[in-house]
Automatic annotation (TrEMBL):
This is Lysine--tRNA ligase. It comes from the Eukaryota. PANTHER family: LYSINE--TRNA LIGASE (PTHR42918:SF12), LYSYL-TRNA SYNTHETASE (PTHR42918). GO terms for molecular function: ATP binding; lysine-tRNA ligase activity; tRNA binding. Its EC number is 6.1.1.6. Keywords: Aminoacyl-tRNA synthetase, ATP-binding, Cytoplasm, Ligase, Nucleotide-binding, Protein biosynthesis. Residues 1-66, 213-236 are annotated as: Disordered. Gene3D superfamilies: Bira Bifunctional Protein, Domain 2 (3.30.930.10), Nucleic acid-binding proteins (2.40.50.140). Residues 46-66, 226-236 have a biased composition (Polar residues). The keyword Nucleotide-binding applies. Residues 265-590 form the Aminoacyl-transfer RNA synthetases class-II family profile domain.
């Protein structure tokens, strides 16, 4: 909470003769400040408000950053020379800031609990002062904030020590405080320190809101009071640190200064926890599979390659845990899941990164129809629990555009891939998609509708581009695109009633793929044939086509029960629930 200078001098202490004389001094000070403000209005040499200028002087914000760093290093050196350790090993806290707020927020305005001793710790992100005897700090920790009212009258130090010590406390310093709880006369919950010690000094000058006019000051106060929760739109104007390059390169600063970013990280953690608890309650067990493999399989993607020095052999960073998880099902673990990183050598954009978190599970004696029901229940329940509604707002086209509403109310819409393309494009796609005739037909269709597809023009790639053009653009609310052709789905089982198709679905939300799932192919002979067909695409230049994994085929020969499996990108889901237009913002990616 940003307080004006008048606010600083309006906090009365106990009624006493000292207070009465102080009141006279305060009235005189106010008169001087009004005179200063009138003079400032006449000046044209600066566009800063008097309040903002005073705060900058108090916090050394007008100093050159390199000079600030040099001064702090020198002051630490002096402390060390005098035998003082500026980096204490430990500080005992009696409660967190969140617990402090929960316990004492019910205090009345002006009430103090001086017989209670509380110790808190956190980082100072704002410092204000009305005199050398009264300092106000904003103490932040674990996503919460309280005010610190450091009054010389309550301190264990004498006035000279108090003034000297607090003048050396800077924004960004991590401090430990021992004091009592209370509320100011303005009703703000605060801790009143008996002692305050710097536990870790911040050597660099922190960025802060730049206020250039009275209207900007009003907007600054408005944005500081903005509180974001999952499912609603975010306001980037609330950010103190706005430079994108700095935010990505120094994510610790982004977390430290922009309160919404911590909430994004916590929301992502809740997504993972909810998903884990959901499957645990269905009898699944969590497992870990190798991140380095001898064969890159389980998805259509290019792998990263590394080298094992001891074994003198090439290894691949996994692009999917799928094949290992299905081997576990063969081994008798009927319900398994894994949450972990996968690595794919593909393009980078707002929704793609070379490393991301995959949530993948496999369920014996189930099919893709079962999984559609399970994922509907998981996602709709998650959104409802985290936002209080099945509907969320998302800036799908950037913060400069109006947000879209996405409705996770089940059941989700379902559209048949081939049938819907034929209907929307008025096409009659050849049934034998492995033929040259079908490939030529799809290439001509792409040219007709100006759908760009880079070489090689395999049937799989052409179909995928047509799906993106005609179907994905219609999928704002969660939508299942179902029954993919066999040629597009080498690991999926053939459709039991539609020749040439598979029992597969992809779940799209806001035009982007969120989940991929299918009834698993468990016939080893057919699986080898599908891998052979993928080899033809690789020979045509498609380096994302799957390669033969003989160890997996051999495993299938021991018998994989009827099984269904699903993979979901955690980071894209976090983007939706945190209104993040860039996947980088949802986890610690630099």
């Amino acid at each position: 909470m940003q307080l004006s200078m008048d606010s600083f001098v309006s906090e009365p202490g106990p009624a006493s003769s000292e207070t009465l004389s102080n009141n006279a001094l305060k009235r005189e000070r106010r008169a001087r400040e009004r005179q200063v403000r009138e003079e400032e209005k006449k000046k044209v040499t600066t566009n800063k408000t008097p309040e903002n200028q005073r705060q900058q002087v108090a916090n050394n914000d007008t100093m050159d950053p390199s000079q600030f760093l040099s001064n702090r290093i020198k002051s630490l050196a002096l402390l060390k020379e005098s035998g003082v350790n500026p980096y204490p090993h430990k500080f005992d806290i009696s409660m967190s800031i969140t617990e402090f707020i929960d316990k004492y927020s019910s205090l009345h305005v002006g009430e103090h609990v001086e017989n209670t001793e509380i110790s808190l710790a956190g980082r100072i992100l704002n410092k204000r002062s009305s005199s050398s005897k009264l300092y106000f700090y904003d103490l932040h920790g674990n996503g919460a904030k309280i005010q610190v009212m450091a009054d010389a009258r309550h301190s264990n130090m004498d006035e000279n020590e108090f003034c000297k010590y607090h003048s050396g406390v800077k924004r960004g310093d991590i401090v430990g405080i021992c004091g009592f709880p209370g509320k100011s006369q303005r009703g703000e919950l605060s801790i009143f320190p008996r002692s305050l010690v710097v536990l870790t000094p911040c050597l660099h000058m922190l960025p802060r809101h730049t206020v250039t006019s009275n209207s900007d000051e009003a907007q600054s106060k408005k944005t500081r009071n903005h509180s974001w929760t999952p499912g609603i739109t975010r306001n980037p104007e609330t950010n103190i640190l706005r430079d994108q390059e700095t935010r990505y390169r120094q994510r610790y600063l982004d977390l430290m200064l922009n309160s919404e970013v911590q909430k994004i990280f916590r929301t992502r953690a809740k997504i993972i926890s909810y998903s884990r608890d959901f499957l645990d309650n269905l009898g699944f067990i969590e497992v870990e599979t190798p991140a380095m493999t001898m064969t890159a399989g389980g998805a259509a993607a290019r792998p990263f390659i590394t080298h094992h020095n001891e074994l003198n052999m090439k290894l691949y960073m996994r692009i999917s845990p799928e094949l290992y998880l299905k081997k576990l099902v063969v081994g008798g673990l009927d319900r398994v899941y894994e949450i972990g990183k996968v690595f794919r050598k593909e393009g980078m954009d707002l929704t793609h990164l070379p490393e991301f978190t995959m949530f993948e599970f496999y369920m014996a004696y189930a099919d893709y129809n079962d999984l559609m029901g399970i994922i509907e229940k998981l996602l709709s329940g998650m959104v409802k629990e985290m936002t209080g509604s099945h509907k969320i707002k998302y800036h799908g086209n950037g913060f400069d555009s109006e947000p879209v509403e996405i409705d996770f109310t089940p059941p989700f819409r379902r559209i048949d891939l081939i049938e819907e393309i034929e209907s929307r494009a008025n096409l009659s796609i050849p049934k034998d998609l492995s033929s040259e005739t079908a490939n030529k037909f799809l290439l001509e269709a792409c040219e007709k509708f100006d759908v760009k597809c880079l070489a090689p023009h395999t049937t799989t790639r052409l179909l995928d581009k047509l799906v993106g053009h005609f179907l994905e653009e219609t999928c704002i609310n969660p939508t299942f695109i179902i029954n993919h052709p066999e040629i597009m789905s080498p690991l999926a089982k053939w459709h039991r009633s539609k020749p040439g198709l598979t029992e597969r679905f992809e779940l799209f939300v806001n035009k982007k793929e969120l989940c991929n799932a299918y009834t698993e192919l468990n016939d080893p002979q057919v699986q080898r044939q599908r891998f052979a067909e993928q080899l033809k695409d690789r020979q045509l230049g498609d380096d994302e086509a799957m390669v033969l994994d003989e160890s997996f085929c051999s495993c299938l020969e021991y018998g994989l029960p009827p099984t269904a499996g699903l993979g979901m990108g955690i980071d894209r889901l976090a983007m939706l629930l945190t209104d993040s237009p860039n996947v980088k913002l949802s986890f610690f990616q630099q």
